[in-house]
Design a protein that fits this description.
The chain is mainly β. About 10% of the residues lie in helices and about 55% in strands. It has helices at about 1-20, 500-529, and strands at about 20-25, 30-40, 50-60, 65-75, 80, 85-95, 100-110, 115-130, 135-145, 150-155, 160, 165-175, 180-190, 195, 200-205, 210-220, 225-235, 245-255, 260-265, 270, 275-285, 290-300, 305, 310-320, 325-330, 340-350, 355-370, 375-380, 385, 390-400, 405-415, 420, 430-435, 440-445, 455-465, 470-480. A hairpin with a 5-residue loop joins strand 17 and strand 18 (about 245-255). It is flat and about 90 Å long.
């Protein structure tokens, strides 16, 4: 009987304890959402078809202290927890007090057919305030799936030869988002001189597109059969301004100089953006036997337009070491951003030595030089009339009305044989002058002794185009000179006489006149007597 009584008491106590546990559901006031981003150690972006980590940063706002937290993040369709399902659950253990910031990392798989865009997930946070009170907070988590750019670097040539040559490096965006503000660093090759011959900025590159950059290398003699590794640093930004950087590596085999039966030569190999360009293509038979029944087809890329009517050519034969020439007019649209372009030349011919029909394909690559046209928009000299010995400033506004950005611009006044000296730096760094965007710079100077009423100060503007060629443009700044001296200290010149001094002068004059009249009258009376 006592045993049954004891068991009943134990059961009653358990029921009472369970009935006293309370769950309090809040709307999210206990936690403040600080940040949401993709990545764990560093911020990145997310692409469909990958396992990514969504980091949620929270700050606890209440005074209750607790030691563990269970977080359930329910994702929308298209997202899957690594273990299956749409909800990712993680547990945080450790003391959490008011003001404590906690980062919760949720790994999740993004399905391959997931659309890029904005999504909403729902976060539930469960924690115990006391022994019998548990709280559940709910938060709405909004995040973006933007995709991310991925740049791959490769060479159009697998082999190089001893001596100086230009190879073309291809930068291909294999990701699913645009790569913005692409910058290429120096090319580093062991035992080989290598240098890019274009601007380090390649602009933007959309997914699936590529851009070529010419790399000039000098391979020393005696390296035939060696493999040359070349490393290239590249950096770019994603859609949400996340910085990506990588070091890409290519390998080139040094081979013997080949004997090519048909050798094309392009002159010039540089075109101007926004203008019509005349080019010549010369094809030389470098072999020791005749090539006959020759045909050529020219196909430009999207950056070029062939204005000549003929793009298919036929020739009867080319004798050994003989050559033929084709002339073309090519237009480069003014909105072209790429620093390079190419024409594919497809050739067919009959090789009489081996008695076979042969075909070759050649990539004729061009450098595209931007047209820079700097126009003087406005100039202001302050003060408008400069005094000798005084400082003054010339503020100049210029506009680039060409087709390409002017890079690393600076301005310096030419002061030789002029009564002027610099009042501060001798030159002013301006930076890049972008298209159709007024750019202003100021030069501070000081006028020295001169008898001239006006002087002309030449200002030299120095800048580079997209292929790193340096240019200079000179603007003349007229400066008017005032020869009026500065007023001396004390009473200003031309100031009126104070009133009391005027009254004394007038009173004194009247007294003197009266004395003279009295003396004259007395003299007259003395004579009459």
């Amino acid at each position: 009987m006592k045993i049954k009584l004891h068991l009943g008491l134990i059961l009653l106590i358990g029921i009472i304890a369970i009935s006293n546990i309370q769950f309090v559901r809040a709307a999210g006031d206990s936690f403040q959402l600080i940040d949401v981003y993709w990545g764990d150690n560093q911020q990145t972006e997310a692409s469909p078809g990958n396992i990514e980590t969504l980091t949620v940063v929270l700050r606890y706002e209440l005074d209750y202290v607790f030691n563990s937290l269970i977080a359930d993040l329910q994702f929308p369709d298209g997202f899957e927890a690594v273990g299956g399902g749409e909800t990712v659950t993680i547990q945080y253990t450790g003391p959490i007090s008011s003001g404590f910031v906690i980062s919760l990392e949720f790994p999740v798989y993004l399905s391959e057919d997931l659309d890029l865009g904005s999504y909403t997930a729902f976060l539930e946070l469960e924690y115990k305030r006391s022994r019998y009170v548990s709280s559940i907070d709910s938060l709405e988590i909004i995040f973006e799936v933007t995709g991310k750019p991925v740049l791959r670097v490769s060479s159009q040539e697998d082999n190089v030869y001893e001596g100086k040559q230009t190879i073309w490096i291809e930068f291909n965006n294999t990701g699913d988002a645009t790569a913005h503000n692409i910058e290429i660093g120096d090319a580093v090759a062991s035992g080989v001189s290598a240098e890019f011959v274009i601007s380090s900025s390649l602009g933007d590159l959309e997914p699936g597109n590529s851009v070529l950059a010419p790399l000039e290398i000098v391979v020393p003699s005696g390296t035939r059969g060696n493999i040359i590794p070349i490393t290239i640093d590249v950096s770019y930004f994603g859609l949400s301004n996340v910085l990506y950087s990588s070091t890409e590596k290519i390998q080139l085999l040094v081979k013997s100089t080949p004997i090519i039966p048909l050798s094309p030569k392009l002159t010039p190999n540089e075109l101007t953006i926004g203008e019509h360009n005349q080019i010549n293509i010369t094809l030389t038979n470098a072999g020791n036997h005749t090539l006959s029944n020759i045909g050529f087809t020219l196909s430009p890329d999207n950056n070029l337009k062939i204005l000549s009517d003929q793009t298919i050519f036929h020739y009867v034969s080319i004798s050994p070491l003989g050559s033929i020439q084709m002339s073309l007019e090519i237009y480069v649209p003014s909105n072209t951003l790429s620093p390079t372009a190419s024409i594919n030349l497809y050739a067919t011919y009959f090789d009489e030595e081996v008695w076979l029909e042969q075909s070759e394909s050649y990539a004729l690559n061009f450098l595209l030089r931007g047209l820079i046209d700097i126009s003087l928009t406005d100039q202001v000299v302050i003060p408008s009339e400069t005094r000798i010995g005084s400082p003054f400033s010339a503020t100049v506004t210029i506009t680039n009305i060409g087709t390409s950005t002017a890079y690393a611009a600076s301005a310096s006044p030419e002061l030789e044989n002029l009564p002027v000296k610099t009042f501060g730096p001798k030159s002013v760094y301006i930076g890049d002058i972008k298209l159709n965007l007024p750019t202003t710079f100021t030069i501070n100077l000081q006028l020295e002794n001169t008898t001239e009423n006006e002087i002309i100060i030449p200002v030299t503007l120095t800048y580079m185009d997209n292929l790193r060629k340096t240019y200079e443009t000179i603007f003349n700044i007229p400066v008017s000179i005032s020869h009026e001296t500065n007023p001396s200290p004390g009473t200003p010149q031309g100031s009126p006489t104070p009133p009391f001094r005027g009254a004394l002068l007038i009173g004194g004059s009247v007294v003197i006149v009266a004395v003279v009249i009295i003396m004259l009258r007395r003299r007259k009376r003395n004579r009459g007597e």
